[in-house]
Amino acid sequence: MSVAATWGTTEEERLRPFPCDQYVERADAAYYRGVSVETPVATMFRWLCQLRAAPYSYDWIDNRGRRSPQTLTPGLEELEIGQRVMIGQLVEFETDRHATVLMRSRTWGEIAVTYLVTAESPDFCRLLVKMVVRYPRGPLGRLLRLVLPWGDLVMMRRQLLNLKRLAERSTRAV
Length: 174
Description:
Shape: globular
Strand content: 25-35%
Helix content: 25-40%
Strand order of the largest sheet: 1-6-5-4-3-2
Oligomer: single chain
CATH superfamily: START domain
Number of helices: 5
């Protein structure tokens, strides 16, 4: 597998089941992302909930130039199925464990993404992401097979590194 498909993850992490696996039938591809974070699981999960407010990647591209919040927004941790998260809908979550988002569109096809937080120790965790995709059929789908893995890697790498930085900063501030 290429780095565009597996950035920051181990083979063991990629072999584990993720909740997103059940939301896209006959997936064409799976992409994995991961980052180690020096913060407790609860803090990292709380920052994941911030994805309801902003994408935390390159704001000038995917947030209309508005800066993603740099402090926790009260109330965003109160998750409910059906809430909007970035450009998808929250379909499943377990507090302090994972959040799974589903997006269906003619342009992008079907995409399910799970953000999973795993404890390595009381003050250290891994933030893992798995994205399963069923591309649209035809020429657009063929193009997306070439572009999406690398485009997503660029955007999600920035997102995960931003969330890591903010979570670690809020842990040090306590």
